[in-house]
């Protein structure tokens, strides 16, 4: 099926200094009359971590499905690992590994059998397959559960097995669709550690997430997807800079102390009901220290001090309002 | 690797996976054997005396057993392929299918694995139900080795044809329950054929239904091969039906499988 509805400019998105692991121009996809992706452009250098950030229904999963050859785009052009998505899908598949949002393990067979199945499908010899399977099971702390049916695994274990299966063919580019959604905090941190290790090995990682914190932790570059369009793209720092909302919150229990502080701190926003003051801040150590020094000098002593950094809500309110 | 050897290797891997499923969870395959065995025992031991009168020629119960077994074997195949439809649907609704679709493997290997696995399961089911039939007195001593071979070939061909139809039904069903319902005709059609009583003994309005459906010529051919009754044009009809259904099922399944997943 032809994918290339729009002509690709010869300089294209694949131009640039570093070789692109993924480059896309004007990707579009609709289901019925609902437009899911409304022309997105991507350029992901090899060996980097790229996060596609967005709320549910923003089109993140659709983007992953298109770039991983699972579904065909309605328009636009993309190259993955140097191969055209439309005409060289099989070469793209040979270079990528995909761990989708929903568990892609065979629950009826054991963890080890799942791994050996992948080894067979990557055409490894029996011996090499056994070795790779054993290594990855060990690395993902699944050796003990290797002989149990995958259906009996916990959510975190399934996710680890899922990624272990994805790694059997040593893919150069890995797509992870919401790798930590539904995981408990410990499993989430384990997953982050796994992703960091992948990057150290030179793999390009394309991940989607709803959590700014996660993108912040892992990604070199972040694109914010909203309503099928990329609302902003940049490093975590760049994104936070365009988003207001970072502030320090001072809460008082004594109304008199609150009033005194409010008159001393003129630039603070007042929240009279909860006796709290909001002082704009980017949350850096330097700024926090100078704020504390200033509070000391002004003789203000709050009962509680909390630091509020911009979160996904802030990013979205800012970006969607800017678009209007 | 050439595309043919890739296809063979990946299909063999998928077949091993399906056989592993069947071996690990034999309950579904065995459950599907329950119906043909029950019908066999019911019609021979409970209805046998009355039924034998219906096939004419002063037949007794053992003659009715001989009449019944070929139809029961075809019904066994129909039942087994219902299981195949269900397992195809289960596979398609699992996340692992997305994984297969994003791997550099032979596209059709998933379906080929299902088809070959299903045909093997059909053969195994026929052997098991056949063993029950022999245990209660079915004999086919007059058949030559060539006739036996032809009978086996016919059973495999019917299995292949019904499997491809079942795979299409499985691919077009949204969930395993729906697949099981949609594939039910594969088990009901043999009931409406010459499996239990000759077509001549049926009411006139119903005869065309029994006559012009795939199971009747297949059953008549099997009967002829095993028991020496007349085959006539049923042999060619059976082969034509099987080839037609297999091609139809293949083309249908292929087009369903090549669609983008939801």
TrEMBL record, chain A:
Lineage runs: Bacteria, Bacillati, Actinomycetota, Actinomycetes, Kitasatosporales
Native organism is Streptomyces lomondensis
Location (main, coarse): membrane
Q: Which domain of life is it from?
A: Bacteria
- Please state where this protein is localized: Cell membrane
Keyword Cell membrane on entry: yes
Under InterPro entries, the record lists: AAA+_ATPase, ABC_transporter-like_ATP-bd, ABC_transporter-like_CS, ABC_transporter_ATP-binding, DrrA, P-loop_NTPase
Keywords on this record?
Answer: Antibiotic resistance, ATP-binding, Cell membrane, Membrane, Nucleotide-binding, Translocase, Transport
Enumerate the Gene3D superfamilies for this protein. P-loop containing nucleotide triphosphate hydrolases (3.40.50.300)
What molecular functions are annotated in GO for this chain? ATP binding
Q: Specify the ABC transporter domain's residue ranges.
A: 22-252
Matching Pfam families: ABC_tran
Family designation: Belongs to the ABC transporter superfamily. Drug exporter-1 (DrugE1) (TC 3.A.1.105) family.
Question: How the protein sits in the membrane?
Answer: Peripheral membrane protein
Protein name stated in the entry: Daunorubicin resistance protein DrrA family ABC transporter ATP-binding protein
Xref: PROSITE patterns: ABC_TRANSPORTER_1, ABC_TRANSPORTER_2
Question: Which parts form a coiled-coil structure per UniProt?
Answer: none
UniProtKB/TrEMBL annotation, chain B:
Keywords, A to Z?
Answer: Antibiotic resistance, Cell membrane, Membrane, Transmembrane, Transmembrane helix, Transport
Q: Entry's InterPro entries?
A: ABC2_TM, ABC2_TM_bact-type, ABC_2_transport, Nod_factor_ABC_transporter
Domain of life, per the record?
Bacteria
The membrane-spanning stretches of this chain are: 25-47, 67-90, 111-136, 148-171, 183-206, 235-253
Q: In this protein, which residues make up the domain named ABC transmembrane type-2?
A: 27-260
Q: A Pfam family this protein belongs to?
A: ABC2_membrane
User: How would you describe this protein's topology in the membrane?
Assistant: Multi-pass membrane protein
Keyword hit for Nucleotide-binding:
no
Q: Where does the record place it?
A: Cell membrane; Membrane
Family from the record: Belongs to the ABC-2 integral membrane protein family.
The cross-references to PANTHER family, in alphabetical order and at most eight, read: NODULATION PROTEIN J
State the protein's name: Transport permease protein
């Amino acid at each position: 099926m032809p994918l290339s509805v729009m002509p690709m400019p010869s300089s294209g998105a694949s131009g640039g200094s570093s070789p692109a692991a993924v480059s896309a121009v004007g990707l579009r996809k609709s289901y019925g009359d609902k437009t899911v992706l409304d022309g997105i452009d991507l350029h992901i250098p090899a060996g980097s971590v790229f996060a596609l950030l967005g709320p549910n229904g923003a089109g993140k999963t659709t983007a992953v499905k298109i770039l991983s050859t699972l579904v065909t785009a309605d328009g636009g052009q993309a190259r993955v690992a140097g191969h055209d998505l439309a005409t060289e899908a099989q070469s793209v598949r040979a270079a990528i590994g995909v761990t989708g949002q929903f568990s892609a393990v065979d629950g009826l067979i054991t963890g080890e059998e799942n791994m050996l199945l992948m080894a067979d499908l990557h055409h490894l010899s029996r011996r090499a397959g056994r070795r790779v399977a054993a290594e990855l099971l060990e690395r993902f702390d699944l050796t003990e559960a290797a002989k149990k049916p995958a259906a009996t695994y916990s959510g975190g274990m399934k996710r680890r097995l899922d990624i272990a299966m994805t790694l059997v063919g040593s893919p150069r580019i890995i797509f992870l669709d919401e790798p930590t959604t539904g995981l408990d905090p410990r499993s989430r941190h384990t997953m982050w550690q796994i992703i960091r290790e992948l990057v150290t090995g030179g793999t390009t990682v394309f991940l989607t997430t709803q959590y700014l914190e996660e993108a912040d932790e892992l990604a070199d570059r972040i694109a914010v997807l909203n309503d099928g369009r990329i609302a902003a793209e940049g490093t975590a720092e760049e994104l936070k800079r365009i988003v207001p909302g970072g502030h320090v919150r001072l809460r008082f229990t004594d109304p008199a102390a609150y009033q005194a502080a409010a008159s001393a701190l003129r630039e603070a926003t007042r929240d009279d009901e909860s006796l709290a003051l909001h002082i704009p801040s980017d949350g850096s150590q330097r700024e926090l220290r100078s704020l504390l020094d200033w509070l000391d000098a002004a003789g203000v002593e709050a009962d509680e001090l909390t630091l509020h950094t911009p979160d996904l809500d802030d990013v979205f309110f800012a970006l969607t309002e800017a678009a209007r | 690797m050439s595309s043919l050897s890739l296809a063979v290797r990946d299909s063999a891997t998928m077949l091993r996976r399906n056989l592993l499923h069947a071996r690990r969870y034999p309950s579904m395959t065995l459950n599907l054997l329950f119906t043909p065995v029950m019908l066999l025992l019911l019609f021979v031991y409970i209805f046998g005396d009355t039924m034998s009168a219906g096939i004419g020629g002063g037949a007794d119960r053992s003659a009715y057993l001989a009449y019944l077994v070929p139809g029961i074997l075809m019904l066994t195949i129909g039942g087994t392929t219902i299981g195949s439809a269900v397992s195809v649907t289960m596979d398609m609704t699992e996340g692992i299918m997305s994984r297969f679709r994003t791997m550099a493997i032979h596209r059709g290997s998933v379906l080929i694995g299902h088809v070959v696995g299903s045909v093997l399961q059909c053969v195994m089911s026929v052997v098991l139900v056949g063993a029950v039939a022999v245990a209660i007195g079915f004999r086919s001593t007059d058949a030559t080795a060539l006739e036996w071979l032809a009978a086996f070939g016919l059973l495999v061909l019917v299995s292949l044809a019904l499997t491809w139809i079942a795979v299409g039904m499985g691919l077009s069903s949204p969930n395993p329950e729906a697949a099981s319902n949609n594939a039910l005709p594969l088990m009901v059609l043999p009931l409406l054929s010459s499996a239990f009583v000759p077509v001549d003994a049926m009411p006139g309005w119903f005869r065309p239904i029994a006559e012009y459906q795939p199971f009747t010529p297949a059953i008549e051919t099997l009967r002829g091969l095993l028991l020496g009754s007349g085959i006539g044009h049923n042999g060619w009809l059976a082969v034509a039906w099987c080839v037609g259904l297999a091609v139809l099922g293949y083309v249908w399944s292929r087009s369903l499988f090549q669609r983008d997943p939801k």
